[in-house]
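Lecture 7 notes: from sequence to structure.

We start with a single chain of 197 residues. Read the sequence below before looking at the structure.
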Amino acid sequence: MVRAIIKRTKRSVVSVKCADNDNHKLTEYFTIRKSDRRTKGEVQEEKRRLLEFALRKGVEDGLEVRYIKNKGRGVFTTRNFNKGEFVVEYSGDLIDLQEAYHREHEYEQDENMGCYMYYFKYNEQHYCVDATAESGKLGRLINHSRNGNLITKVLMVDKVPRLSLLAKTFIKAGEELLYDYGDRSKESLENHPWLAF
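Now the structure, written as tokens:
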């Protein structure tokens, strides 16, 4: 017959000694409680997978377009967004710089045509997303503010860089979505003084 003698301290079991002098593991008497905590790497990987899923599915939930007097169209939230949460993708044609400069020159010829080009650098390579064509996608309609409530993050999906706009802070339902276009060139500020604000 095996009889366990358990020594306890105020906080935990220190050792288990059996009367028949056989060595036994504590887990033979008590189940192991596994922590449901995740490592920082696991949390980051889960966030990356969720972001990739949203980009693949073209998620644009909780958003609507409204007309703003003296400004034009803008995108507003219909629900709250938590800090760091995916909001929308800036989507369009992914093109190289040579094609981007060519298209920009064409767009300049038509005074009634806007230009919705997003230049960025990722892994030492330059890209441009041209969202000028009306597509029904909402990311292209988000207006500029130097103190915007969105930030841009690039994520590779199927070896293609994708531009996601994430909540920079907590965003309440009904707020206009804004991000900093980042263009501070003298020429741009002369032609588009609103970029300074």
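Residues 40-91+135-196 form a domain with the Beta-clip-like fold (CATH 2.170.270.10). Keep this in mind for problem set 3.
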